[in-house]
């Protein structure tokens, strides 16, 4: 195991005690969680863990997949450390624990909300991963339209006011992510017709990378109160570069080298509508994204 992730005043206290294994898997220490939830004595927290394990078992989950009984070194003062028994917990295990913890402790209700929301997010991510590629594209393209609108608002607040300025701003994000390629270059690379939009001819992996670029640029512009179109352009470019470097470090395919789908988003939506007319359950959306 390796040490805790870096903390920040903006993150949840439950994220602050989250740890990451060398393989990149998240976990929580039961001792850390006990302290955060207000249990001053760890032995009084053990019955809560036992109830959570029973709840896990009753939900047809493998207890050992979520609760790992082990030991960890704990500081006991004056620089000395001692090994104590503890349990390493998955996110789902933490969710079960806060559901069984003392509800009179103020932070327990906060933990119930946090882990309920985060667990549901993970469930949605798992559901998305299990979908066919075309359905993933429909979902992510719709999300991309929403995030682009939010990014446009953040850019406007930063001083990107005119349509031509926003086009330059957009190009900076693409250049960072696509190794110097502008939107028109990507359009040519995908061999699209003049009226066709590049976002409508991206697979789920490429859309995911662009969503990350858009959301992180939006957040950075707002968080750092960036002002001036030149600084906004630079920020968009740098975020795009960071996403590209992350893909590279993970051994992924650069976005410009990903395959271009043969069907546009509009064609997929048309097929969804036909299924609806035939009385079949539509899988996702029947309205095209706006951006």
Give the SSE map.
Layout: H1 13-16, E1 19-20, E2 26-29, H2 30-36, H3 46-58, H4 63-66, E3 67-77, E4 80-89, H5 91-100, H6 106-130, H7 133-158, H8 163-177, H9 183-189, H10 204-223, H11 229-249, H12 265-277
Antiparallel strand pairs: 1-2, 2-4, 3-4
Low-confidence stretches: 1-10, 282-288
DSSP helical segment count: 12
Q: Which term fits the overall shape?
A: globular
β-strand percent reads: 5-15%
- Domain count: 2
Compute the CA-based radius of gyration.
23 Å
Description:
The protein has twelve helices and four strands; from the N terminus they run αββαααββαααααααα. It is an alpha+beta fold. The protein has two domains: 13-129, no CATH class; 132-263, no CATH class. A four-stranded antiparallel β-sheet has the order 1-2-4-3. Helix 5 (91-100) packs antiparallel against helix 6 and helix 10 (204-223) crosses helix 11 (229-249). The two termini are 44 Å apart. Mean pLDDT is 87; it is low at 1-10 and 282-288.
What descriptive keywords fit this protein?
single chain, 291 residues, alpha+beta, 2 domains, four-stranded antiparallel β-sheet, 12 helices, 9% strand, globular, disordered N terminus
Briefly characterize the structure.
By secondary structure, the chain is of the alpha+beta class. It has twelve helices and four strands, in the order H-E-E-H-H-H-E-E-H-H-H-H-H-H-H-H.
């Amino acid at each position: 195991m390796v040490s805790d992730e870096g903390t920040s005043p903006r993150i949840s206290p439950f994220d602050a005690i989250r740890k990451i294994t060398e393989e990149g898997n998240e976990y929580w220490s039961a001792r850390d969680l006990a302290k955060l939830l207000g249990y001053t004595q760890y032995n009084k927290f053990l019955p809560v863990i036992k109830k959570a394990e029973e709840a896990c078992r009753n939900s047809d989950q493998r207890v050992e997949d979520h609760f790992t009984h082990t030991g960890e070194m704990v500081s006991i003062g004056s620089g000395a450390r001692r090994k104590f028994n503890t349990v390493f917990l998955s996110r789902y295990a933490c969710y079960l624990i806060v559901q069984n913890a003392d509800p009179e402790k103020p932070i327990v209700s906060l933990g119930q909300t946090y882990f309920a929301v985060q667990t549901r997010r993970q469930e949605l991510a798992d559901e998305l991963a299990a979908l066919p590629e075309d359905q993933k594209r429909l979902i992510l393209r719709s999300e991309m339209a929403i995030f682009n609108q939010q990014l446009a608002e953040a850019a406007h607040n930063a001083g990107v006011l005119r349509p031509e300025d926003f086009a330059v701003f957009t190009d900076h994000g693409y250049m960072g992510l696509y190794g110097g390629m502008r939107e028109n270059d990507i359009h040519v690379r995908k061999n699209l017709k003049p009226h066709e939009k590049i976002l409508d001819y991206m697979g789920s992996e490429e859309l995911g990378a662009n969503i990350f670029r858009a959301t992180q640029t939006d957040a950075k512009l707002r968080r750092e109160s960036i002002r001036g179109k030149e600084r906004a352009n630079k920020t968009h470019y740098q975020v795009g570069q960071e996403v590209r470097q992350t893909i590279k470090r993970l051994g992924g395919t650069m976005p410009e080298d990903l395959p271009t789908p043969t069907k546009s988003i509009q064609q997929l939506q048309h097929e969804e509508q036909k299924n609806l007319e035939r009385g079949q359950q539509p899988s996702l959306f029947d309205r095209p994204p706006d951006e």
